[in-house]
Amino acid sequence: MRRITTLIGAGLVAAATASLIAVGVGGGAEPVPAAQTLTFVERTVPGADVVADVPPVGGPTSKGDSFMFRNEVLTHTGKKVGIHEARCTYLAVTTEVVGSRLICDGIYTLAEGTLSSQTAFTFTENPRISFTVDGGTGAYEGARGSGTLTYRSPHDPHSDTVIRLLP
Question: For the chain, which terminus, N or C, has the lower number of CB atoms within 10 Å?
Answer without folding.
Answer: N
